[in-house]
Amino acid sequence: MLPRLIRVLTGISALALGLCGVASGQISPGPLSRAHQQLEGITKCSSCHDFGGGDKRLKCLECHVEIQHRVEAHAGYHAKAYTPSATQIDCARCHTEHNGQKFPLTRFDRSKFDHKGLTVFALEGKHATLQCEACHTANRLPAAAKAEIKLKDLNHSYLGLARECTACHQDVHANQLGADCVRCHSQDAWKPASGFNHFRAAYPLTGLHQSVACQKCHETKVGEKSARYKGFSFANCQSCHADPHKGAFQDAKFQGTCETCHNTTGWNKNQPSVSFNHNNTKFPLHAKHADAACAQCHKDNDFKRPVAHEHCSDCHEDIHAGQFAKRAAGAECSACHSESSFKPATFTRETHQTSAFKLEGKHAELDCVKCHQPEAKPESKNIAYMTGKLLCKDCHADPHAGEFAAAPYANRCEVCHMQTSFQPPTYSSLQHAQTKFALTGAHAAVVCGDCHKPLSVPAIASPVAGAKAANASDHAARQYHFARQDCVTCHSDPHNTPKVAAMPCETCHNVRQWKELKTFEHASTKFALEGAHQTVTCAGCHKPSSQNLRASPTATNAKIVPDFAKTPKLCFECHEDVHGGQFLSAGREQDCKACHTVNNWSSSAFNHNATSYPLDGFHSQVPCAQCHTQQQEIDGKTIRIYRRAPTECAKCH
């Protein structure tokens, strides 16, 4: 467009005289914009174009001096966008004319405009969210800029804004701190003033001054619009603070300064004067005492009044409520505590070994509070240290429900248990041998719990709140004392012997093994063993009369056992009646001994002469079966009949 315009303008100068009669619309490249419409007409072309010799040039900056000034001052957008030249034709690179009144002189894309790179004013923080019109308004332009900008409506101009914060924002500090607001504030938010550091000010803030609100010192006085930030007097503390000592220390010794004894970390966290050494007094200050505020001891700031200090209790409360007053060292705290810290106490576990209760075993691992608990009084919060509890039962529940309360044990747990562990007990078989029931034979291998079964009563509760029974693994107290020591105290009688006929188990058995029987004197019973009976096993005669189940506490399997008390004593009660009952008669029992002996079943002992048919002569030599020939089947067996034998000679001969 620009070369074309220059060629057109060059032709105008050559044909000016010859074409004076031709209409001006045929010479102009096109109508001017609305902003330049007052320059319309052929006679006014030289207002913008130079038709002299040499390079053809435009006169933009001669009219737009506001742009020329910014280019020369290297300020603003045009200083970066415009390339200076003698012809000034660089303006036409962005602004084109002769395109009509409605054609915009400037094409501007806000979304792609680099505000930082092209104006040297970066939009950051809150500024980045603003619309252009929020800042580029007529009321923000300085008077000098308003005078030289050509636009009628200055609200449409982007020229003339100053970069200082106060050009747009009110100076709330009333020009006390200058116009460079970004030294203290950021563009993200006015508060807090993150860039301000009071340590760089004439009065650095230390100690508690750092937590004081700004308005406490920088207050807005009546009639003023801004808080005060300059002109403060801070030569000494009394510039802001009243003297609580009312001039008592304003002498040459203390030089009248609060800093002699106090610092900004706290009024009560005072420090002695450099010229005063408390260690030269009757009470040197060590450890925590050296950190204490003077007023903690010197009440009402009266430093001349004597302070009692011979004993800790002169200043400190006895939190033990006099428990240690009866000690040899008295209630002096230094016996267990130091000036460095009340806790932990210097009374250690090693020190505890010198007390009436030495810490051994599990006791050595316990925390102090396990034994030393608050006193039982509801209103008391004191920890009980002088407990007077030296016996196990004083702290632990009695798991034996008082079985060992009497002599010789008197509830002395240490007879059977150790402090390292309640289980297993130290009670040995040697100690058991001193009781009424010595452990011998198989009893020595029996587990204690097999004989000492749980009682039906619970363990006696511990006198210490929250304490558990020592044998917490056992859920009930066990029986250790028995009224009787015979076998049936623990073992059931597998033979179901009636009490009237009961005899001690050791009559037949021993404690080594149940099946290992003694040589039993059967003759001491009502049935002496004679003849063939001597070779018969016990079970051969003593058979179970019923399915007796062995109910011994140590038995693991049910067994059928013989019944001794109900063993029969008559022959037919054990032996089968081979005679089919022919020798039974009313009113009397069968008597096998009339014909047989315990030595032999043969009938050699039978005396036939005692019958109604004595055997004489050759009859005495005849076998029984030769005369007693009659047989009969009884219960499926063939039985020889003896009582029906003939007695007449003719029936046999």
Tell me the helix content.
10-25%
Number of helices: 19
Span of the ends, CA to CA = 182 Å
Instruction: Name the strands of the widest sheet in spatial order.
Output: 1-2
* Order of H and E elements: HEEHHHHHHHHHHHHHHHHHEEH
Shape: elongated
The portion of residues forming beta strands comes to: under 5%
> Structural class given helices, strands, pairing?
little secondary structure
Mean pLDDT: 81
Largest sheet: 2 strands, antiparallel
Which regions have little confidence, pLDDT < 50, spanning 5+ residues?
1-24, 469-474, 549-557
Topology, number of strands: 4
Polypeptide structure, described:
- The protein is largely without helices or strands and 653 residues long.
- Helix content is 15%, strand content 2%.
- Among the domains are: 2-167, no CATH class; 390-483, no CATH class; 486-569, no CATH class; 571-652, no CATH class.
- The radius of gyration is 65 Å and the shape is elongated.
Brief characterization of the structure:
The chain is 15% helix and 2% strand. By secondary structure, it is low in regular secondary structure.
Q: What attributes does this structure have?
A:
single chain; 653 residues; little secondary structure; two-stranded antiparallel ribbon; 4 strands; 15% helix; disordered N terminus
Write the layout of secondary structure elements.
Elements: H1 2-15, E1 49-50, E2 57-58, H2 60-63, H3 65-72, H4 76-81, H5 115-119, H6 132-135, H7 143-148, H8 214-217, H9 287-291, H10 294-297, H11 349-352, H12 368-371, H13 392-395, H14 429-432, H15 448-451, H16 538-541, H17 571-574, H18 624-627, E3 631-634, E4 637-640, H19 649-652
Antiparallel strand pairs: 1-2, 3-4
